[in-house]
Write a structure and sequence with these properties.
- This protein is α/β, with parallel strands linked by helices.
- The chain folds into 3 domains: 81 residues, Up-down Bundle (Four Helix Bundle (Hemerythrin (Met), subunit A)); 185 residues, Rossmann fold (3-Layer(aba) Sandwich); 131 residues, 434 Repressor (Amino-terminal Domain), CATH 1.10.260.30.
- It is 60% helix and 9% strand.
- It has 20 helices and 8 strands.
- The chain has an 8-stranded mixed β-sheet, sandwiched between helices.
- It starts with a helix and ends with a helix.
- The chain binds guanosine-5'-diphosphate (GDP) and magnesium ion.
- The site of guanosine-5'-diphosphate (GDP) has 18 residues, from helix 6.
- Keywords: Cytoplasm, GTP-binding, Hydrolase, Nucleotide-binding, Ribonucleoprotein, RNA-binding, Signal recognition particle.
Length: 439
Protein backbone atom coordinates (compact mmCIF):
# COMPACT_ATOMS: atom_id res chain seq x y z
CA UNK A 1 0.00 0.00 0.00
CA UNK A 2 0.93 3.65 -0.24
CA UNK A 3 1.68 3.78 3.49
CA UNK A 4 4.03 0.85 3.25
CA UNK A 5 6.07 2.21 0.36
CA UNK A 6 6.29 5.64 1.92
CA UNK A 7 7.27 4.10 5.19
CA UNK A 8 10.25 2.33 3.69
CA UNK A 9 11.42 5.49 1.99
CA UNK A 10 11.11 7.52 5.16
CA UNK A 11 12.85 4.94 7.26
CA UNK A 12 15.79 5.15 4.90
CA UNK A 13 15.75 8.94 5.05
CA UNK A 14 15.55 9.03 8.82
CA UNK A 15 18.47 6.68 9.07
CA UNK A 16 20.74 8.98 7.09
CA UNK A 17 22.90 11.17 9.33
CA UNK A 18 23.54 13.98 6.92
CA UNK A 19 21.14 14.54 4.10
CA UNK A 20 22.44 15.46 0.71
CA UNK A 21 20.72 16.55 -2.44
CA UNK A 22 21.15 13.02 -3.70
CA UNK A 23 19.37 11.51 -0.67
CA UNK A 24 16.45 13.81 -1.27
CA UNK A 25 16.31 13.15 -4.99
CA UNK A 26 16.40 9.40 -4.40
CA UNK A 27 13.70 9.59 -1.77
CA UNK A 28 11.51 11.77 -3.95
CA UNK A 29 11.83 9.38 -6.84
CA UNK A 30 10.58 6.59 -4.61
CA UNK A 31 7.77 8.74 -3.28
CA UNK A 32 6.73 9.59 -6.81
CA UNK A 33 6.61 5.92 -7.73
CA UNK A 34 4.60 5.18 -4.60
CA UNK A 35 2.13 7.92 -5.54
CA UNK A 36 1.75 6.66 -9.08
CA UNK A 37 1.31 3.12 -7.84
CA UNK A 38 -1.42 4.42 -5.57
CA UNK A 39 -3.15 5.69 -8.72
CA UNK A 40 -2.47 9.35 -8.11
CA UNK A 41 -2.75 11.35 -11.33
CA UNK A 42 0.57 11.81 -13.06
CA UNK A 43 0.58 15.61 -13.19
CA UNK A 44 -0.63 15.82 -9.61
CA UNK A 45 2.21 13.57 -8.46
CA UNK A 46 4.72 15.55 -10.49
CA UNK A 47 3.65 18.93 -9.16
CA UNK A 48 3.50 17.57 -5.65
CA UNK A 49 7.02 16.19 -5.81
CA UNK A 50 8.28 19.50 -7.20
CA UNK A 51 6.79 21.33 -4.21
CA UNK A 52 8.26 18.95 -1.68
CA UNK A 53 11.62 19.11 -3.40
CA UNK A 54 11.71 22.87 -3.39
CA UNK A 55 11.01 22.98 0.34
CA UNK A 56 13.27 20.07 1.20
CA UNK A 57 16.23 21.59 -0.64
CA UNK A 58 15.99 24.70 1.50
CA UNK A 59 19.31 25.33 3.17
CA UNK A 60 17.71 25.30 6.62
CA UNK A 61 16.47 21.79 6.14
CA UNK A 62 19.83 20.47 5.09
CA UNK A 63 21.48 22.12 8.09
CA UNK A 64 18.88 20.94 10.57
CA UNK A 65 19.82 18.46 13.26
CA UNK A 66 17.29 15.95 12.05
CA UNK A 67 16.90 16.60 8.34
CA UNK A 68 15.16 13.27 7.79
CA UNK A 69 12.44 14.12 10.30
CA UNK A 70 12.08 17.57 8.82
CA UNK A 71 11.56 16.22 5.33
CA UNK A 72 8.91 13.87 6.65
CA UNK A 73 7.23 16.92 8.19
CA UNK A 74 7.41 18.83 4.90
CA UNK A 75 5.93 15.83 3.16
CA UNK A 76 3.14 15.58 5.71
CA UNK A 77 2.22 19.24 5.39
CA UNK A 78 2.27 19.16 1.61
CA UNK A 79 0.13 16.05 1.69
CA UNK A 80 -2.44 17.79 3.89
CA UNK A 81 -2.35 20.75 1.51
CA UNK A 82 -2.87 18.49 -1.48
CA UNK A 83 -5.81 16.87 0.26
CA UNK A 84 -7.39 20.28 0.63
CA UNK A 85 -5.92 22.05 3.66
CA UNK A 86 -8.74 22.74 6.09
CA UNK A 87 -11.86 20.67 6.50
CA UNK A 88 -14.76 22.24 4.59
CA UNK A 89 -18.10 21.99 6.37
CA UNK A 90 -21.51 21.84 4.70
CA UNK A 91 -22.89 25.23 3.89
CA UNK A 92 -26.62 24.93 4.48
CA UNK A 93 -29.46 27.38 4.87
CA UNK A 94 -32.44 26.50 6.97
CA UNK A 95 -34.30 24.91 5.34
CA UNK A 96 -31.43 23.49 3.33
CA UNK A 97 -31.25 21.30 0.26
CA UNK A 98 -28.67 18.68 -0.52
CA UNK A 99 -28.52 16.96 -3.89
CA UNK A 100 -26.51 13.75 -4.09
CA UNK A 101 -25.30 12.59 -7.48
CA UNK A 102 -22.93 9.99 -8.82
CA UNK A 103 -22.65 6.76 -10.77
CA UNK A 104 -24.48 3.55 -9.95
CA UNK A 105 -23.05 1.72 -7.01
CA UNK A 106 -21.00 4.68 -5.81
CA UNK A 107 -22.96 4.68 -2.56
CA UNK A 108 -25.49 7.50 -3.02
CA UNK A 109 -28.43 5.83 -1.31
CA UNK A 110 -26.32 4.55 1.56
CA UNK A 111 -24.70 7.97 1.90
CA UNK A 112 -28.09 9.68 1.90
CA UNK A 113 -28.95 7.61 4.96
CA UNK A 114 -25.58 8.22 6.56
CA UNK A 115 -25.84 11.94 6.00
CA UNK A 116 -29.36 12.05 7.45
CA UNK A 117 -28.07 10.12 10.43
CA UNK A 118 -25.20 12.56 10.98
CA UNK A 119 -27.31 15.67 10.56
CA UNK A 120 -29.90 14.28 12.94
CA UNK A 121 -27.24 13.70 15.56
CA UNK A 122 -26.06 17.26 15.00
CA UNK A 123 -29.53 18.44 15.96
CA UNK A 124 -31.00 19.02 12.53
CA UNK A 125 -34.21 17.55 11.16
CA UNK A 126 -33.38 15.86 7.87
CA UNK A 127 -35.89 14.54 5.35
CA UNK A 128 -35.04 12.02 2.65
CA UNK A 129 -36.40 12.15 -0.90
CA UNK A 130 -36.15 9.29 -3.38
CA UNK A 131 -35.51 10.64 -6.88
CA UNK A 132 -34.05 7.52 -8.47
CA UNK A 133 -36.92 6.63 -10.77
CA UNK A 134 -35.11 4.05 -12.85
CA UNK A 135 -34.97 1.27 -10.36
CA UNK A 136 -38.04 0.64 -8.18
CA UNK A 137 -35.77 -1.21 -5.78
CA UNK A 138 -33.85 2.02 -5.26
CA UNK A 139 -36.92 3.68 -3.76
CA UNK A 140 -37.42 0.78 -1.36
CA UNK A 141 -33.75 0.86 -0.47
CA UNK A 142 -33.95 4.51 0.56
CA UNK A 143 -37.14 3.83 2.52
CA UNK A 144 -35.36 1.05 4.42
CA UNK A 145 -32.37 3.24 5.16
CA UNK A 146 -34.67 6.07 6.31
CA UNK A 147 -36.41 3.66 8.65
CA UNK A 148 -33.09 2.58 10.10
CA UNK A 149 -32.03 6.10 10.95
CA UNK A 150 -35.52 7.19 11.92
CA UNK A 151 -36.02 9.96 9.37
CA UNK A 152 -39.15 10.72 7.29
CA UNK A 153 -38.87 9.72 3.65
CA UNK A 154 -40.72 10.67 0.49
CA UNK A 155 -41.22 7.78 -1.90
CA UNK A 156 -42.79 8.52 -5.30
CA UNK A 157 -45.01 6.13 -7.16
CA UNK A 158 -43.05 3.51 -9.06
CA UNK A 159 -44.74 4.59 -12.31
CA UNK A 160 -43.38 8.16 -12.16
CA UNK A 161 -40.76 9.05 -14.72
CA UNK A 162 -40.55 12.86 -14.58
CA UNK A 163 -37.94 13.64 -11.98
CA UNK A 164 -38.73 17.37 -11.78
CA UNK A 165 -42.39 16.61 -11.17
CA UNK A 166 -41.40 14.23 -8.40
CA UNK A 167 -39.11 16.84 -6.89
CA UNK A 168 -41.93 19.41 -6.94
CA UNK A 169 -44.30 17.05 -5.14
CA UNK A 170 -41.57 16.08 -2.72
CA UNK A 171 -40.98 19.71 -1.77
CA UNK A 172 -44.70 20.17 -1.12
CA UNK A 173 -44.58 17.08 1.08
CA UNK A 174 -41.47 18.42 2.83
CA UNK A 175 -43.34 21.63 3.70
CA UNK A 176 -45.87 19.55 5.57
CA UNK A 177 -43.13 17.84 7.57
CA UNK A 178 -41.16 19.00 10.55
CA UNK A 179 -37.84 19.13 8.78
CA UNK A 180 -35.09 21.65 8.08
CA UNK A 181 -32.83 19.92 5.57
CA UNK A 182 -33.95 17.92 2.55
CA UNK A 183 -31.63 15.30 1.06
CA UNK A 184 -32.28 14.14 -2.51
CA UNK A 185 -31.09 10.71 -3.59
CA UNK A 186 -30.82 10.50 -7.39
CA UNK A 187 -30.37 7.92 -10.11
CA UNK A 188 -26.99 6.96 -11.41
CA UNK A 189 -25.72 5.16 -14.48
CA UNK A 190 -22.88 2.82 -15.19
CA UNK A 191 -21.17 5.69 -16.94
CA UNK A 192 -21.81 9.35 -17.45
CA UNK A 193 -24.13 9.72 -20.43
CA UNK A 194 -26.21 12.49 -21.93
CA UNK A 195 -29.46 11.37 -20.44
CA UNK A 196 -28.06 11.22 -16.95
CA UNK A 197 -26.51 14.65 -17.31
CA UNK A 198 -29.65 16.16 -18.82
CA UNK A 199 -31.90 14.87 -16.08
CA UNK A 200 -29.51 15.98 -13.39
CA UNK A 201 -29.23 19.46 -14.92
CA UNK A 202 -33.01 19.86 -14.86
CA UNK A 203 -33.28 18.65 -11.31
CA UNK A 204 -30.43 20.89 -10.23
CA UNK A 205 -31.91 23.94 -11.95
CA UNK A 206 -35.25 23.32 -10.30
CA UNK A 207 -33.99 22.58 -6.78
CA UNK A 208 -31.14 25.10 -6.59
CA UNK A 209 -29.55 23.09 -3.79
CA UNK A 210 -27.01 24.73 -1.48
CA UNK A 211 -24.97 21.58 -1.55
CA UNK A 212 -24.61 19.48 -4.67
CA UNK A 213 -22.40 16.64 -3.56
CA UNK A 214 -20.83 14.07 -5.79
CA UNK A 215 -20.72 10.64 -4.23
CA UNK A 216 -17.68 8.82 -5.61
CA UNK A 217 -16.22 5.40 -4.96
CA UNK A 218 -12.63 5.79 -3.74
CA UNK A 219 -11.78 2.30 -4.87
CA UNK A 220 -12.12 3.38 -8.49
CA UNK A 221 -9.03 5.57 -8.12
CA UNK A 222 -8.43 7.92 -11.04
CA UNK A 223 -11.80 6.88 -12.39
CA UNK A 224 -13.44 8.60 -9.44
CA UNK A 225 -11.46 11.74 -10.17
CA UNK A 226 -12.52 11.91 -13.80
CA UNK A 227 -16.15 11.27 -12.79
CA UNK A 228 -15.89 14.20 -10.39
CA UNK A 229 -14.57 16.45 -13.13
CA UNK A 230 -17.39 15.49 -15.47
CA UNK A 231 -20.15 16.01 -12.91
CA UNK A 232 -18.62 19.34 -11.98
CA UNK A 233 -18.64 20.46 -15.60
CA UNK A 234 -22.24 19.30 -15.98
CA UNK A 235 -23.93 20.78 -12.92
CA UNK A 236 -21.21 22.34 -10.77
CA UNK A 237 -20.61 20.42 -7.61
CA UNK A 238 -19.90 21.95 -4.20
CA UNK A 239 -18.02 19.03 -2.78
CA UNK A 240 -17.30 15.35 -2.82
CA UNK A 241 -18.17 12.47 -0.58
CA UNK A 242 -15.60 9.77 -1.05
CA UNK A 243 -17.06 6.37 -0.22
CA UNK A 244 -15.47 2.98 0.42
CA UNK A 245 -12.31 4.52 1.79
CA UNK A 246 -12.34 1.57 4.19
CA UNK A 247 -11.53 -0.78 1.34
CA UNK A 248 -9.12 1.44 -0.56
CA UNK A 249 -5.54 0.51 0.15
CA UNK A 250 -4.18 2.76 -2.56
CA UNK A 251 -5.58 6.09 -1.50
CA UNK A 252 -4.96 7.66 -4.90
CA UNK A 253 -8.46 9.04 -5.43
CA UNK A 254 -8.33 11.03 -2.22
CA UNK A 255 -4.96 12.44 -3.16
CA UNK A 256 -5.79 13.68 -6.66
CA UNK A 257 -9.41 14.67 -6.08
CA UNK A 258 -8.87 18.14 -4.73
CA UNK A 259 -5.99 19.03 -7.03
CA UNK A 260 -7.83 17.97 -10.18
CA UNK A 261 -11.33 19.26 -9.42
CA UNK A 262 -10.61 22.10 -7.01
CA UNK A 263 -13.57 20.83 -5.00
CA UNK A 264 -13.24 19.79 -1.38
CA UNK A 265 -13.80 16.28 -0.09
CA UNK A 266 -16.33 16.96 2.65
CA UNK A 267 -17.01 13.50 3.96
CA UNK A 268 -15.53 10.04 3.81
CA UNK A 269 -17.56 6.83 3.86
CA UNK A 270 -15.70 4.10 5.67
CA UNK A 271 -18.02 1.16 5.89
CA UNK A 272 -21.50 -0.05 5.05
CA UNK A 273 -23.03 0.88 8.39
CA UNK A 274 -25.06 4.04 8.63
CA UNK A 275 -22.81 5.62 11.24
CA UNK A 276 -19.71 5.17 9.11
CA UNK A 277 -19.60 8.57 7.48
CA UNK A 278 -16.90 10.92 8.73
CA UNK A 279 -15.91 14.51 8.17
CA UNK A 280 -12.91 14.55 5.89
CA UNK A 281 -9.98 16.24 7.60
CA UNK A 282 -7.00 16.60 5.23
CA UNK A 283 -4.43 16.77 8.02
CA UNK A 284 -5.80 13.62 9.65
CA UNK A 285 -5.79 11.83 6.32
CA UNK A 286 -2.16 12.86 5.86
CA UNK A 287 -1.47 11.53 9.37
CA UNK A 288 -3.13 8.32 8.39
CA UNK A 289 -1.15 7.93 5.18
CA UNK A 290 2.06 8.49 7.13
CA UNK A 291 0.75 7.00 10.34
CA UNK A 292 1.41 3.39 9.60
CA UNK A 293 5.00 4.32 8.93
CA UNK A 294 5.37 5.85 12.36
CA UNK A 295 3.99 2.74 13.96
CA UNK A 296 6.62 0.66 12.27
CA UNK A 297 9.22 3.10 13.56
CA UNK A 298 7.90 2.71 17.06
CA UNK A 299 7.93 -1.04 16.86
CA UNK A 300 11.54 -0.86 15.88
CA UNK A 301 12.17 1.18 18.98
CA UNK A 302 10.63 -1.58 21.03
CA UNK A 303 13.05 -4.00 19.49
CA UNK A 304 16.02 -1.82 20.36
CA UNK A 305 14.86 -1.31 23.92
CA UNK A 306 15.10 -4.99 24.56
CA UNK A 307 18.73 -5.90 24.80
CA UNK A 308 19.34 -8.35 22.04
CA UNK A 309 22.01 -10.22 24.00
CA UNK A 310 19.70 -10.69 26.96
CA UNK A 311 16.97 -11.92 24.70
CA UNK A 312 19.27 -14.38 22.97
CA UNK A 313 20.62 -15.71 26.24
CA UNK A 314 17.17 -16.24 27.55
CA UNK A 315 16.02 -17.88 24.32
CA UNK A 316 18.93 -20.27 24.40
CA UNK A 317 18.09 -21.28 27.93
CA UNK A 318 14.49 -21.75 26.98
CA UNK A 319 15.47 -23.93 24.08
CA UNK A 320 17.67 -26.07 26.29
CA UNK A 321 14.87 -26.45 28.80
CA UNK A 322 16.96 -24.85 31.55
CA UNK A 323 14.34 -22.33 32.45
CA UNK A 324 14.21 -21.11 36.05
CA UNK A 325 12.80 -18.18 37.97
CA UNK A 326 15.85 -16.06 37.12
CA UNK A 327 14.97 -16.35 33.46
CA UNK A 328 11.41 -15.72 34.38
CA UNK A 329 12.42 -12.44 36.03
CA UNK A 330 14.47 -11.43 33.01
CA UNK A 331 11.54 -12.05 30.77
CA UNK A 332 9.25 -10.06 32.94
CA UNK A 333 11.62 -7.13 32.79
CA UNK A 334 11.64 -7.33 29.01
CA UNK A 335 7.91 -7.39 28.91
CA UNK A 336 7.83 -4.52 31.37
CA UNK A 337 9.79 -2.45 28.88
CA UNK A 338 7.38 -3.43 26.18
CA UNK A 339 4.61 -2.41 28.55
CA UNK A 340 5.29 1.27 28.52
CA UNK A 341 5.87 1.08 24.78
CA UNK A 342 2.41 -0.28 24.47
CA UNK A 343 1.02 2.85 26.04
CA UNK A 344 2.94 4.93 23.55
CA UNK A 345 1.89 2.78 20.67
CA UNK A 346 -1.76 3.11 21.55
CA UNK A 347 -1.49 6.77 20.67
CA UNK A 348 -0.44 5.99 17.13
CA UNK A 349 -3.00 5.59 14.37
CA UNK A 350 -3.28 2.13 12.92
CA UNK A 351 -2.00 0.44 16.02
CA UNK A 352 -5.31 -0.85 17.29
CA UNK A 353 -5.06 -3.99 15.20
CA UNK A 354 -1.65 -4.90 16.53
CA UNK A 355 -2.69 -4.11 20.05
CA UNK A 356 -5.47 -6.64 19.80
CA UNK A 357 -3.00 -9.35 18.95
CA UNK A 358 -1.05 -8.81 22.14
CA UNK A 359 -2.58 -10.02 25.41
CA UNK A 360 -3.39 -7.17 27.75
CA UNK A 361 -2.38 -9.18 30.79
CA UNK A 362 1.15 -9.31 29.48
CA UNK A 363 1.33 -5.54 29.75
CA UNK A 364 -0.47 -4.85 33.00
CA UNK A 365 2.27 -3.28 35.15
CA UNK A 366 0.35 -3.96 38.38
CA UNK A 367 0.11 -7.64 37.69
CA UNK A 368 3.75 -7.79 36.69
CA UNK A 369 4.74 -6.10 39.95
CA UNK A 370 2.87 -8.65 42.05
CA UNK A 371 4.34 -11.55 40.15
CA UNK A 372 7.76 -10.03 40.55
CA UNK A 373 7.25 -9.64 44.30
CA UNK A 374 6.53 -13.35 44.64
CA UNK A 375 9.64 -14.31 42.70
CA UNK A 376 11.75 -11.90 44.76
CA UNK A 377 10.55 -13.59 47.96
CA UNK A 378 12.07 -16.88 46.86
CA UNK A 379 15.55 -17.90 47.96
CA UNK A 380 18.21 -18.19 45.23
CA UNK A 381 18.00 -21.96 45.55
CA UNK A 382 14.23 -21.91 45.11
CA UNK A 383 14.52 -19.73 42.02
CA UNK A 384 16.96 -22.14 40.45
CA UNK A 385 15.09 -25.28 41.45
CA UNK A 386 11.41 -24.35 41.71
CA UNK A 387 10.50 -28.01 42.21
CA UNK A 388 11.67 -27.78 45.85
CA UNK A 389 9.03 -25.16 46.63
CA UNK A 390 6.59 -27.20 48.67
CA UNK A 391 3.99 -26.47 51.40
CA UNK A 392 5.74 -24.45 54.10
CA UNK A 393 7.99 -22.69 51.58
CA UNK A 394 4.93 -21.58 49.67
CA UNK A 395 3.38 -20.06 52.75
CA UNK A 396 6.64 -18.27 53.58
CA UNK A 397 6.84 -16.82 50.06
CA UNK A 398 3.23 -15.70 50.24
CA UNK A 399 3.86 -13.95 53.55
CA UNK A 400 7.09 -12.42 52.34
CA UNK A 401 5.58 -11.01 49.17
CA UNK A 402 2.32 -9.84 50.67
CA UNK A 403 0.33 -12.19 48.49
CA UNK A 404 -1.85 -15.18 49.20
CA UNK A 405 -1.05 -18.87 49.09
CA UNK A 406 -3.51 -19.17 46.22
CA UNK A 407 -1.53 -16.65 44.19
CA UNK A 408 1.77 -18.37 44.88
CA UNK A 409 0.30 -21.71 43.90
CA UNK A 410 -1.07 -20.25 40.72
CA UNK A 411 2.26 -18.74 39.75
CA UNK A 412 4.07 -22.02 40.39
CA UNK A 413 1.52 -23.85 38.33
CA UNK A 414 1.87 -21.37 35.49
CA UNK A 415 5.60 -21.62 35.73
CA UNK A 416 5.42 -25.40 35.43
CA UNK A 417 3.19 -25.10 32.38
CA UNK A 418 5.51 -22.54 30.86
CA UNK A 419 8.46 -24.83 31.24
CA UNK A 420 6.58 -27.50 29.41
CA UNK A 421 5.57 -25.06 26.70
CA UNK A 422 9.16 -23.94 26.22
CA UNK A 423 9.77 -27.09 24.30
CA UNK A 424 7.11 -26.12 21.78
CA UNK A 425 7.79 -22.93 19.84
CA UNK A 426 4.20 -22.80 18.69
CA UNK A 427 3.12 -22.41 22.27
CA UNK A 428 5.56 -19.60 22.96
CA UNK A 429 3.03 -17.03 21.89
CA UNK A 430 0.54 -18.28 24.41
CA UNK A 431 3.15 -17.94 27.07
CA UNK A 432 3.15 -14.17 26.66
CA UNK A 433 -0.31 -14.14 28.14
CA UNK A 434 0.61 -16.42 31.00
CA UNK A 435 3.46 -14.30 32.29
CA UNK A 436 1.46 -11.54 33.82
CA UNK A 437 -1.81 -13.34 34.21
CA UNK A 438 -1.65 -13.63 37.96
CA UNK A 439 -4.63 -12.74 40.13
P1 LIG B 1 -25.88 3.87 -5.22
O1 LIG B 1 -26.15 3.01 -6.41
O2 LIG B 1 -24.93 4.98 -5.55
O3 LIG B 1 -27.10 4.37 -4.54
O4 LIG B 1 -25.07 2.95 -4.18
P2 LIG B 1 -25.60 2.24 -2.85
O5 LIG B 1 -25.84 3.22 -1.78
O6 LIG B 1 -26.72 1.33 -3.19
O7 LIG B 1 -24.29 1.41 -2.46
C1 LIG B 1 -23.74 0.39 -3.25
C2 LIG B 1 -23.00 -0.57 -2.37
O8 LIG B 1 -21.87 0.03 -1.78
C3 LIG B 1 -23.84 -1.08 -1.22
O9 LIG B 1 -23.60 -2.45 -1.03
C4 LIG B 1 -23.32 -0.30 -0.02
O10 LIG B 1 -23.48 -1.02 1.18
C5 LIG B 1 -21.87 -0.14 -0.37
N1 LIG B 1 -21.25 1.03 0.26
C6 LIG B 1 -21.67 2.32 0.21
N2 LIG B 1 -20.81 3.12 0.88
C7 LIG B 1 -19.84 2.32 1.38
C8 LIG B 1 -18.64 2.56 2.16
O11 LIG B 1 -18.29 3.69 2.54
N3 LIG B 1 -17.90 1.48 2.46
C9 LIG B 1 -18.24 0.23 2.05
N4 LIG B 1 -17.44 -0.77 2.39
N5 LIG B 1 -19.32 -0.02 1.32
C10 LIG B 1 -20.13 1.01 0.98
MG1 LIG C 1 -29.07 4.31 -5.08
Amino acid sequence: SLSDSLDKTFRNLRGVGKISEKNITDALREIRLALLEADVEFTVAKTFIAHVKEKAMGADVLKSIKPGEQIVKIFHDELAELLGGDQVPLNLDSPGRILLCGLNGAGKTTTAGKLANRLKREGRKPLLIACDLYRPAAIDQLATVAGQVGVPVYTPDASESDVVKVAKEALAWADSQDGDVVIFDTAGRQEIDERLVEELKQLHAFLKPQETLLVADAATGQGAVSVARHFDEAVGIDGIILTKLDGDARGGAALSMRAVTGKPIKYAGEGEKLDQLFEFHPDRMADRILGMGDVVGMVEQVATRIDEKDAMKSMERLASGKFDFYDFLDQMKMIGKLGDMKGLLSLMPGFSKMKKQLPDAAFDPKRLKRTEAIVLSMTPDERRRPEIIKGSRRQRIANGSGSTLVEVNRLLKQFGEMRKMMRSPKKMKKMMGGLGALG
